[in-house]
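Step 1: inspect the first sequence and its tokens.
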Amino acid sequence: MTENERKPTKALLPLAALSGALAGLAALAVAEAVAGGVRPQAGPVVAVGGAAIDRTPAAVKDWAIRHFGTDDKLFLQLGILAVLALFALALGMVALRFRRTGAAGVLLFGVVGAVAATGRPDSTGLTDALPSVAGAVVGAGVLYVLAGRLRPRAATATATATATATATATATTVAPPGAGWDRRGFVIAASAAAVGSAGAGLLGRSLSGAGGRDAVASRRNLVLPTPGSRARAVPKGAQLRVPGVSPFITPNGDFYRVDTALVVPKVDATTWRLRVHGQGVRRPLTLTFDDLLRRDLVEHDITLTCVSNEVGGPYVGNARWIGVQLADLLAELGVKPPSKGGPADQLVARSVDGMTIGSPVEDLMDGRDALLAVGMNGEPLPFAHGFPVRMVVPGLYGFVSACKWIKDIELTTFDAYDPYWVKRGWARRAPIKTESRIDTPKPFARPRAGTVMVAGVAWAQHRGIDRVEVRVDDGPWQEARLAAEDTRDTWRQWSFPWQATKGGHTLTVRATDRTGALQTAKRAQTIPDGASGRHSVVVTVD
């Protein structure tokens, strides 16, 4: 048999690529099944995705949020799967010639997943490596077996022909290259791999669902106590009757979500604990969820804003929150703000997913309604927004205040510790800037000539909005009509009846807060402490 006859034919390359794809599918399915028994966050796609997020430059993260919005995590996971698929196809073709090399390549990806899982901030230890390791071993085995079924082999047939009554000739024929691969064995092995992967995937989904059932039940069975201090009814006139304006209270399903969690944590409220400790804490405390509910609950309307919100962007929302006053809890434990001699100037909140968020102690204890929130718009917090407990602090961007799925509070100093976002180039302190947005008309709208209602929202939490003005093209600033104010911690709607004339026009808005500070025209990017500038839209009047 010649060397050329031993080489796989090109006709087998598609089947080799299919072998790699099936091996990759088996590896992921088994890994996710094992992750269902360990914890969903230990799965290789989630672990590698989380590691990618942690190592992505801030500017790139900001770009992803700006372009993909709250779907940024979905696009990241799809990207990871696409890369894995390409490598799986390539390893399958490599294994056609070099079985062990191809299988080793699958094992290498398992090592990457295991390292990523155990290196995550929320890792529970070496058990987090099990999903990636188990998946890699199974995937490598599948590829090794399938590649073996594709290896061409010489088929020798001995044909005996009687030439004469006294002579016999024996002829040996060699099959053409690639003709001798085990078709039946390949089909059986490939089918078994596909069926087994599907079964493992279903098992993983079932186990992951079972792991969150107690959390779902704890939320479903929760009846929030009536707050001792209720928020007043939203004033009449706070919601303008102008089509296209954002609702004054943002429904939970429409409230923006920006975080780094690829899998939304599902925390069982019956087993949840919150530890409070650190500098200036006279006696460390661990609270259960029931302990928190037995405290005095308050209800407040508070508008939250994400630091990734561009000028005119959508990452701002207003809700009615129920929770415990954080300042009261800290004071009971002996904590004092720096202005009163307290040693800690930073409160570091830690989430169950490993996120760390640092807030100025002075701001949390200056009289504003900083909450450990348990309810949102009349119901327990949704899982995506931090159930069972999260922080809500008016006047501070979320990356320095809004810790979701909180489990630990430590009093420390800014000099002693840099939280997650500070390590990545964002500011340590970030009060929300005075901003305004045009909700209607939309950019590039084509309204008819005549009276066109221009309207939107403005916010300057913990300071309040005093005035909103609109400018048409390069004309003078004209004062808009403000809707009724709820509190200084909520956004405020505004409207302006514009006598529109035919042609193209640019509408610009600016706001002034209660301190007299005018919204700046100077453009700044979101990094490091929030975007600034004035929102404008271009329309064509017909």
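Step 2: inspect the second sequence and its tokens, then contrast the two.
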Amino acid sequence: MSPVSRRGLLSGGIAAGAALSIPAATATASTASASTAAATAGGVSSAKIRPTDARYQDLVQRGTNRRFVAQPDYVRVIRSADDAVQAVQEAVRTNKRIAVRGGGHCFEDFVDHSEVEVLLDMSQYDEVSFDERYNAFSIGAGATLETVYKALFYGWGVTVPGGGCLGVGVGGHFSGGGYGPLSRKYGSVVDHLYGVEVVVVDAKGRARSVVATMDNQYKDLWWAHTGGGGGNFGVIVRYLMRTAGARGTDPSRLLPKAPASLLSSILIYDWKTITSDGFVRTLRNWFDFFERNNTADSPYATLYSPFILTTAAAGSFLLSTQLDASVPNAAGLLKAFNAAMLEGVSPAPQVIDVPEGPFLHLTMQRSIAEDIAPKRSKFKAGYLRKGYTDAQLKLLYDNLSDPKSVAAPGSSVLFIPYGGKVNTVPPAATATVQRDVMAKMVLTATWDDPGQDEVQIGWARKLYEDLYAATGGVPVPNETNAGSYINYPDVDLADPRYNKSGVPWSELYYQGNYARLQRVKATWDPRNVFRHKLSIEPAG
């Protein structure tokens, strides 16, 4: 096997671990016994980083939402499966609440919570390699999407259909049903998940590492990680990635081929000149296009075109589009798409054609940027089976264009195309149940001043409540809505003050798959060691 990762290249191989550690790329079911024995024998390899340690503040402030900063008793930086087993075992033995951090992008306080006493930081366990034993790519749970994309593409010319924010960690992103620019062509990330290694705790409080795959005796645990979300069943150590149905042993044929190059364009709309009718027509064009072109075999399957609706304070909003340049008549397709977006819109937006460029270079260049200084934020989301009504779009226009709006300048509403290949998988085949959708909506409030918390969160809540007024203030599954996405968690959905629909939060996120997730939870985390405000509740 040939490890290829940013950290691996710098160190000349697999990241250093404990003396008893088994390299991630060769761990098997027998790892569980070795790890459990090591934990029982005592002696945890990773140091307890306490508040007096110079590293502590850096580690506890790695989260990107400054509304939440934990103050755990100590932090452990995990570097191997054994390391994780031993750290979990000690925390369970001393009855301390555990949280796990990967990339630090959890939108709520699931990691940075006041009750968390032990924080396990996975950021240094980021190896990407090919595991010959499982005939799959092994990806450490601490890896970021940037690390994964570079390792897979430079090493084997392949990729996974993950997200566009490169600093996001795979630990939560993959397990929650991650998606991104290539998902309409290749499906969700979980449609390429062959297995997962997880540190679990049994009813007697014994920690062990289990490798669960789609075809071994632990299949139920694998299934739970195909959309169940992080922080529910154990500590995810690594993922084993291989496209469902892929055959052979050549690694370059076991995951999707990355495009060689991309065609791109940007449409910029001026808030000063666009009217309510023009705004409605603009969004209607977008919704209509993706409703018409939402099949896996569509020539537009590789077209990714998120609409980024910032407030009027930003001056403009934009539509950023990319398309695989190798698709037949790619230039013609992009031209036709832009023409469809401009139809009936006056005044027309500014159109910027971006020169064709290499796939990974443009992916890095056009990725969703992160502020160097993290902000305070609140996120709310929903899946769409079809586009919003004109009344909903007018509501958005009135809110976003209002010069007296209390929304902070960085706040926005984002519409992201989805569906295509995603919709070819049965809802129960993975824990990712939404398999008949065409887009996602993400509402973001972001600000700096803690004194603005109530105002900014209130703005997001009011707009969301008004958008979904017909269904109790939340996206209750119906002809138009399909609930919400667990990787965009919103604790308001579990609060009757904001969810007035009578439909429980679990139905909004998991629908018919929740009962099975509860059974998996009861089997693999019977003591409810791993929990947060929207964690799976064990079956009674």
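Step 3: confirm your contrast with the notes below.
The mean pLDDT is 91. The radius of gyration is 23 Å.
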